[in-house]
Structure formats: structure tokens, C-alpha cells
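Review box. Two proteins, two foldings.
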Amino acid sequence: MSASSGRRVTVNVGGRALSLSNLDKVLYPDVGFTKAEVIDHYSRLAPVILPHLRGRPLTVKRYPNGVDGAFFFEKNAPRHTPDWIRTVTLPAPGSTSGRETLDYAIVEDLPTLVYFANLAALELHVPMWRVDGSGAPLPPDTVVFDLDPGAPATVVECCLVASLIRHELDADGITARPKTSGGKGLQLYAPWDGGDPSAYAKGIARKLEKRHPASVVSVMTRKARPGRVFIDWSQNSTAKTTVAPYSLRAQPRPTVSTPLTWDEVERCEEPEDLVFTSADVLARVEERGDLFAGATGTDL
């Protein structure tokens, strides 16, 4: 797919007419990765990414001038959002716009996914809960452990901590799946139906911090984190979102939040071992399917 800069093309996606623009615009300058390739990434991965987005209010991180340019988070669906895209109106406590509610988009299908990719929404973020058919929030259905290494610690140390968390979850009969953040960290997801996931995750984080104080920290204080892995249990808050599986990240290369096997986690020796670009992930999915199937709450 290509076009001259500024030119619009109309394409049929899943029965919807979409006007795509600036397809040859380079959004990742270091490697020449274009908007057309961003759209291609999300289009080809739709079968594995949509189950993890469906029913979840969307927050996007848009980079209209590429990863080296200005960006902004967008929770409220843009004014020009087509009426065929599902939106839900939800409370917005603490909204920077001063609004009491926001109209969130819900990514239900391929045309919606392509629509946001065309807006240079490189990163897709969703909460650990869904809405029902009428748009009412449901209880959290997923628990997440977001592992953030404090330099000089890296994702290698995150893998060691991930194995500790896995052991704790196994003892509670909970099966976790790992994925990269697409940046420097690692995340563990598991289906959840047991009350407050934030309190549970906090308990695990505090327990491991007590047992392994030299390598684990459970508080957000920056000065406590150098050389340790921060287990961010607060990502389970209903007000927070986490980058979705298979989302691109705004890094110099088009890296992806990539589902992993536990063997890959246990074998990790260098940070680069767990860096995957769009091309890598497309090949992985073709070979292995969705390694994150079952990692999040039951599909609606």
C-alpha cells in the first residue's frame, strides 16, 4: 500500500469505506517504517489482537508526526469518529479537560482498528475490565503485574522476578502469561474473577519485596528503584490502562508488546533476546498463533 504524501485513498475494509491519508509518511524515521506499514501491522494482526481489545474502552497514544515528534494521549473518541464505531459514555474523574464523562471508543472489528491506525494511533491501551452490551462497566476480569526495571537492571532481571511471581500465582491456582511491554519491561496477565485484583497484586508484590529486597521493590518512589525491578501492582486500578498485546510502541524501531512462552522468559540472557519488531511478531503469529489466548478475561 503506498501513496504520495498528502494524498487520500478510499479503501473498503470489512464493508466500511475508509479514507486513508499520508500512507508513505515515515513514522519511525530510524528504520523508515511508514504509516502504511503501521496499518498493515494492525490489519494482519487483527485476528489475534481484537479478542484482547473487544469490550475494553480504548485509550490511544497518537504520533501524527512520527515517534520523534509530539504525541498525545486520547481517551475521548475524536469528534469525526464515524457513527458505526461503537462508543460508550463513562465517568471521567480527574479529567484534564474538566469533563464529567468521556466517550470512549470500543475496538470491535477490523474497520475500527484500521481507522485508529490511520490516525497514527501507534499505541493502544486498555483497562483490565470490559463493558457489557449496554456500555456499563463490568468487574475486572484480568490481573496484571507490570514489571519495570530500574537501571542498571534490565528485562533480564524482570524475567527473574516474573518467575517468582509465577510461582506465587501457581500456588494460588492462577495461570499467568508473560508478554514484553515493547519497551524495557515485562508484564504478566491472568484471568481474574476474585474481587479486587489490585489488592491481590499488591500483596504478591509486598511479599516478594520482603523476601528479595535487593532485587524487588513494590513502591513507585524513583529513588528506591535503581538496580531493582518495580512490580507495579497499581496498573490494576480501574482508572488505569496497560498497553495491549500486539500493540506497537513508540520506540526508535517499531517494537511490539509481544506475548512470550515461559521458556523464552527463563532463557533470557540479554535484553535484546526479548525485543521483537512488527516483522518479528507477524512471523511469530503465523508460526505459533496467539500465545496470549486465555491470558485475559473471557471474551464477550
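Next protein.
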Amino acid sequence: MALRPPPLRVWVWTAGALVLALVAVLLYRGSSVAATDSTTAPASPLPGGTPAGQVAQAWSADGRDLPVQLVQEGRVVVPGERSLVAHDAVSGEEAWHYRRDDAELCGATAVDGLVVAVFRTAGRCDEALALDAATGVRQWTRNLSLRGDATIQGTSQAVLASSTTGVVVIDPTGDNVRWRTAADEGCRLTDTAVGSSGVALLQRCPGSDAVRLRLFDSFTGQARWSRDVAVPDGGEVTLVGADRLVTVAAGGTLLASRPDDGSEAAALPLPEGDGDGDGDGDGDGDGDGDGDGGILQGGAGDLALLWARGTLWAVDPATGEVRWERPARGLPATADAAKTAAGDVAVWVPEEGGFVLRDLATGEEAGRADVDGGLEPGGRTSVTGPALVYRLEDRVLGYR
């Protein structure tokens, strides 16, 4: 019995299925899914213990545009041109990574147990996502429309995307844009910062002999206050930070404003630069607090912590009083305050011979972790169990 060819409709269906399969393959190859290489890690408890009396460098990782906030859930997040790599804070081994072949990283920050990153795909920073800091598992993704030169900063419960024309505030634990605001017409934003005080903007307008410092509520976007800061002859005004106090460097002075009304809380003379404590010194106006010769700001307990050119101040935000002052190599660990033997709050301060645990209220030494060869200047300290993480301008060092 002769075999009869299939009906025409079968050939049509088969051809259609092959075409659909080919289209699917082509779409996949051209999609961001195919261009993404990512791994995840199992969740694990945070390491216990405290730093030993003598520590040594256990690992290091080079990075670019390192965020101020890069330690979360026992991971140290180091960005690259197109990637995020999370290292175990104790061992330095890679825990997970996320890489894109079709997009460049605009910036990232680690807050609230998450790593929030924004990627540039077509000239604009237009794709944002959040990854679980401990595991690397994606939590949310959303489209944005930010300028291609946008920078990313973060603090608890707020992520700030900034450019010279305006800012956008994103809820890190959701994917919603809380609010946005633009620079005044004809003006530009020279610096931005986000911290416990809110979102601070430094604005420069043509024809003005001063820059305008403004503070906004990070949740509602409501303007709290604004004040003009005179530009010193032959100098400039840069925004240092917005944690506990809103601080700018104007010439040779640190001017600290109260977050509630913008009144001056303190005016601290900057130490003379010695070429050894210049920190990041990138002066890029990106709001990371690392410009103007490496002036760094953070907060712990009820005190603002300011570091500049080898000197650390602990300042009472309510009175502007300097509670204590010490020589230091950089900024103490502020996110996870430690405890003294008596149970008092303490911070690990990077100093010439290593890390010194100091009582937050008095500045008195309560312990130490010596480092052979000492520490480089201009770093930010974090602590995770027995590990001390030291963030410099272009790399991260782990000590244990």
C-alpha cells in the first residue's frame, strides 16, 4: 500500500512551528536573559565572634566606583564595569555574582539586606534591580529613566539616584519611586548626599556668589530647609554628608548644620593637608562624601563622626559639641556598633597601628586589633564577626 503524503495543513503547521522556534531562539540570544550570567548562594547565619587582638590582611578585592555602603548580611559587594561580585566578609571567597554583557553598571549600594543596582543599556541608566545581599537571589526589577551619568547612593530605607539636573529617591525594599525633584531652572546640583538626616542637595546657580544647601525628607520629599553658603575666595564648597548632621567643607572649615532647622551646629577648622591622609580625594561631586581631600562622615548612636586629614571628631548633633577627638587613619565602623567589656557602645577606629575599639561616648580605648605595617589612610571600616573590612578608593581589604 503506497504511503500518502501528509495533508497540506500538516506541512503548514510544521513550518509554522519551526519558524516560531527559530524566532524564540533569536529573541533569546538578543535578550538580557542570554546576556546575564549570575550565581546564587545558600543563606547562612552571620559569623559570630569579635576581631582578635592581632589581625592580618586575609584578602583583597579591586573594584571601581565602590559604594560607601558595601557590606550587608556578611557579604562585601564589589562592583565592576558590568558586574557585581559578593565576597564572604571573613574568607573573601566569592559567594555570588551578577554580570551583564549588554549593559554597564551606573552604580550600586548595599542597604536593608539588599544590593540595589542600576544598569545603563542605551545611553541612559534605565534598568534597576535588587538582589538579596546574602544569596544573590533577585528580589525585584524595574525600568527607570535616569541620565547616563547618574550615581547611586544608599542609606537605611532609601536609595538616591543623582545627576546634575535632579534626584530620584527609590524605596529599596519595594520597587517604587518615592519622589523626585529637579534643580532650579538654570542651576545645577554640584553634590548630593543621603543619610539619617535626609537627602541633602548642594546647588550652584549662575550669577550667585553662594551655593544653596537644601535638605529634604527622604520618605516624603518634603523640603525641610535651605540656606546659602558663601564660597570662599579661591576655594569651593563641597557636601560632605547627611548623617546626624548636614556637613559641607567651605575653604578650610567644616560647617555642620542641624537637620531640623538648618542652623549652624558646629564650625570645625580643617587640619592642614599632610599628603598622608587625603583619603579618596576624588572631588567628583558624586555625593559619596569622599571629595575635598578625603573628608568622610558617618554616624553611630547619637553622634556624628567626621574624619578629615588624619583627625576624627565625634560631634553631638544637638549642641555641636565635640565630645572627643583622636588621630585616625579613616572613618570608624558605624553600621554595626560593637560593645565594650562593660556593655557600652563602641566603634572600631582605624588608627596608625591597626583598629582600636573606642567607647563611643568618651573615645577611650576599650580594645584593639593590631595590624603589622599599619593601615593606609582614607578608608571606611566595617565589622562582621571576627572580620574587619576596610574600604579604600579602589579596593577593599579584609582583616582577621
